[in-house]
Each structure stands twice: as structure tokens, then as C-alpha cells.
Amino acid sequence: MNLGIDKISCITQEFRVENLATFNHTPSNQPKILEGKEVPPKVLTYVNGNPILSHTKALKIMGADTDQHIGIGITPSKHEQGANGHLSITFNPSKYANGGYELCTSKTQLAEVFKDITNRLKTEGIHVNLEATNLQRIDLTKQAEMPRIARDYMEAYDHLHVKYGRQITRHRVNADYYRLQNKSWQLCAYDKQMAFLSTSEKTAHKVREITPSNLLRNELRFMNSKTCKEHAYRHTGETLQGQESWEGIYTPFLQKRMFNQLREGVQLRLPFATEIQTLIELEQQPQPICNTWGEVVKVVPPKKRGLMDRVTLRFGINEIIKHMSLEAYLSLFADTYNKSQLAAKKLEYERALNTMPNGSHRNTLINELETAFLIAI
Asked: What span, in angstroms and rounded, lies between the C-alpha atoms of 11 and 130?
């Protein structure tokens, strides 16, 4: 299993710039009128001890259109006088070190990336202790070659019942990309090979059909400084603790919030039939859809069609019949399905069970995701 760091964004006020001309920026240092009041410019940074005042952010892109791309910005201070502005740095350690879709998986490799970026900034007259900066975003990423093609798992993500997820939005970006998110974090799942090849094709100005692959990537993204501090790290240098530390963040977060109902060898807290009944009731409730600010923008009515298939997908029919008879399971849906529909479902499940080799256990899509992306802790 590959586990690495795929993106870092960090910020600090502890930096020095030799010459602002290296940035694509003209300071907007004249007072402006906002809501009828005159607003003075604020300190962007100091050059040779002299304050540079501005209302707007200074930006710089190093290595544009390359794998060693670094985005740099200086935002004016929040205070009118005195304090230095905020320097932000964004880069992708995996692309920086490897290109392609190999992940940056070791602290040694990550340390080399930090060293090289620090030296490149210094040659541009930007002096900063990268490891002492505060994290604003970090992407902890795993990828695995799955038993099926990556797009087959997109529907499974739609059936994950996220714990503490009242403000979660779900977005099927395309056939090969799924995103679960709120304003603090994201879980993005996609066919990495297709994403990489399509980007390469666009860069080369070529268009061709790309065959889906079984290389599935799961990116856990902590999207602001508060979330980084709470669930991952406060300072950029703390990431150098290495893969064991990264795993100690990645697995528990997903396990607690998304895979908390499927643990091998752990007895369920409630009787199994009660667990299923609870899930059925949840599936039949209207689902609020929120924007990135957590505001409810619409309420989606429950989907009656496919209810039993969704519940069966969550547990797996092989696991269900370990706890109850097939007839008992079907009886839980008597209020939703008529007798002929239940009879058809019974035949469908009996046919599936009879085609399994003796002693085999059928893995559901969700079981396969858990096996591939979570380790036992």
C-alpha cells in the first residue's frame, strides 16, 4: 500500500523578501473607499527595513507548467501598521519529487523536497524557514490496485453513511471521480491513471479515448489551518515524522467517520437486525444538501427505488445471512416492497449465493475499499 503526501499549503509571517520586483505585483497603496469610509493600505512586507503598503496580494509562480510547480503569495497584514504580511507557499511533494503518479512516501524524500524548495526560494530573494510555517492544507493520499476498475467503486462512496456528517456534500464529478466534503475536509476518490493520462494528453494537445484502470486513489484533504491542527499537524516540519505518523492520522479518521460500521471480528453494538433497520430508516429520510459554508441549499427526497440494493451493498448478502435467514432479512422491507417484488429479490439473492464457491466470502465494494485503504489498528 502506498501512503504519501500529495499537497501542502502553508503560511507564516516570519519571512524576508529582498526585492518585491520578483513578484508579479504592483502595490495598490492609495487609500480606497469602502462602505463610505476611507481604508488605508496595510503592510505587505518590508524590504530593507522599508514597509511596502498595499491593498492587494502579491503573487509569484515558480516552475509553472512543470511538476516542480510552487505557488507563492504575500497577503497584506490584517493590522494597519507594524506587522509583516503573510507569506503562503503551496506545492505538491509527490509531483515535485517523482512526477507522474508515484507518491512521496518517505520522510527522507520529503526532507529533500523541503530543502530544494527552500534553496529555490532563497535564489529568488525569499528567505523563510519552511519547516516552521503553519499548515493551511495537507493531502494524505493512498492509492491501490483494486480487484475491479476504479469507476466501479464510485457508487460505494455514495452509500457511505458519514458519521458527524450533517454538513457533508456529495459530488460525482464524473464517472471516475467522487468527492465527499464539508468546509473543513474532503475525501476524493478517483482513477489516478486516467486523471494523469488525461492531463498529459491535454498538455500535449492530443485527444484520445483513455481506458479506465484499476488504480484507485483516496485523498484525505484537510482544508484549513484549524482542521490541520486538530486532525493532522500544526507546523509543516511535523510532517517529517514519516509514514507511520501519516498512517496514524489517515486510518483513524476514515475508520471513525466512514467505515465505523464494518469492522471484521468486532461485535456490533446492536442486534444485527436492529442495525439494518436503523440503516433502512436512515435511507428513507430526506437528505439535506449543503454548500461549502454549511448552509442547506436544498433537501433531496428519499430514494425508494433501489432501497434494498443499497442496504445489501452496505453489508453484503454473505455477511447478512450469517446473522439471519434470507426470509427474515426480506421481511424487514415488507413496508416498502410488495410480495412479488420480495419474491423476485429472494430468487436474485439465492442465485447469487448458489453461484459462490463453497466456503468463499463475497466482498462487497465497501468491504474491498476498507481492505485496500485501512490497516488494522
From this structure: 9
Same domain, 170 and 81: yes
Instruction: List Cα–Cα distances, 40 to 56, 81, 135, 211, in angstroms.
Output: 12, 10, 29, 56
Residues 234 and 344 in one domain: no
- What are the Cα distances from residue 44, in Å, to 53, 78, 134? 5, 10, 19
Whether residue 266 lies inside any domain: the answer is no
Cell of 63: 516552475
The model's pLDDT over 228-263, given as tens digits with 9 standing for 90+, comes to 999 999 999 999 999 999 999 999 999 888 876 543
pTM for the full predicted model: 0.73
Q: Provide the CA 128 distance to its chain's centre, in angstroms.
A: 28
H/E stretch holding 62:
strand 58-62
Range of the domain at 363: 272-373
In Å, what is the CA distance from 329 to each residue of 12, 79, 80?
A: 57, 64, 67
- Asked if residue 201 and residue 323 are part of one domain, the reply reads no
